[in-house]
Amino acid sequence: MLVALLALSGVLTATPSSAAEPATAYVDVAVATAWVSPGLDRPVDAPAVANPADIRKWTADMTLAQRAALVGRLETQALYGTPVRILERRGDWVHVAVTGQPTPRDPLGYPGWVPARQLTGSAGFAALRRSRPVATVTSASAWLSTDPAGRHREMELSSDTRLPVLARSGSAVLVATPDRGGRWLPTRDVRVGDISAGAPRPTGADLVRTATMFAGLHYLWAGTSSFGFDCSGFTHTVYDLNGITIPRDSDAQKAGGRPVDRSDLRPGDLIFYAHDHGAGSIHHVGMYIGDGYEIDAPANSATEESPLEIVKVDEHRYADEYAGAARYL
C-alpha cells in the first residue's frame, strides 16, 4: 500500500517511496520506544512517549515492579535519526518497522508502535544520509549542542546514534539532524566513517572492549540504547557498534550465527539459554569475554534489580539452561 506523503499529527510528512515500498520517517527524539500496540503506555511512561523524550527520567521514576511490567508492552527502541518504515497509522500512533534491526517478523525491520510526535519526515536529511560520511556515537552517550564548544547542550544521545557529517572543526563535528538543522558533537565521542565499508573486521577483543563499557547499566525490557538494554538489545548494539549487523532477538541471533562448541568459546561469541534445561525456546543471550566469563544484561524481577554484569559461565543464573553458542566473527 502506498503510504508516501502521509501526514502524521500535522507534523510528520514521510519521505516518498515507490509504490512497492512504505514511506520512510525518522526518529526525532533521543530514543523512541516501540510498543506492542497503541495506548499501552501508563502515566509513569509519560517521559518515554513525549517529545522530547527523557529516558533517564523514565527509568529512574519507575519502580522495579513497573519496570518488570514492561514485558509484553514493549517491542524495541530506535535511536535519534534512525529511519523507520511506516506500516500503518492509528490515531496518534504509527506502526513502523525499525530499520537496522533484522527480524524474521518483518523483512523491513523490527515492528512496533510509536507516538507520531516522535517521528518526522525530511527529504533533505534523507539525501544527506545517502551522500555524507556518518558520525557514530561510540561513547556511552554524547551531547548534541548548538555550538562547537558544547556550551549550549540540547539533547543527550545514546551510543550507536548515527548522523550525517557536514563539517569538522577541531574538537567537534557538525552533523545533520532530522528536525533541527546542523548541530555539534564532540569529536572524542564519535567515529566518523562507515565502519562496515572497507574497514578491517573487528576482533573479539574489540567486541569485549565495547561490551564492558556498559557494565553496571540497568536492565530495560526492549532496550537498545545505552540508557538501558535488554539481553539481545545489548548484544545487537555491541555488534552494531563494531560494524556487524546481527538480528535483534536472541532466538534469531542463535539461528543466524555459526554454531560453536562450548569447549571452543572465543571472546565475542554469543551464549544462549533456553527453557526446559536448554532444550526449549531461547530466552536469554550473553557474550563470552574470555577466561570462562561472559557479560550480559539479566532481566530484573519485580523485587530485584540486576544490572548488566560479568559472571562466570559455569556460575550463571541460567547455567542449567545452556543451549549453545554462535559466532559472527
Weakly predicted, low-confidence segments: 1-11
What name does CATH use for the topology of the largest domain? Answer: endopeptidase fold (from Nostoc punctiforme)
- Percentage beta strand: 25-35%
Q: Any guess at the CATH architecture of the largest domain?
A: Alpha-Beta Complex
Please state the average pLDDT score: 92
Give the % helix: 10-25%
Terminal CA distance reads 38 Å
How many helices? The count is: 7
Q: What is the CATH class name of the largest domain? A: Alpha Beta
The coarse silhouette is globular
Quickly count the domains: 3
The major sheet is characterized as: 6 strands, antiparallel
**Number of β-strand runs:** 24
CATH superfamily of the largest domain, by name, is endopeptidase domain like (from Nostoc punctiforme)
Strand order of the largest sheet: 19-24-20-21-22-23
Give me the secondary-structure category: alpha+beta
Supply Rg.
19 Å
Family: Belongs to the peptidase C40 family.
InterPro entries: NLP_P60_dom, Papain-like_cys_pep_sf, Peptidase_C40, SH3_16, SH3_YKFC_2nd
Signal peptide: 1-19
Protein name: Peptidase P60
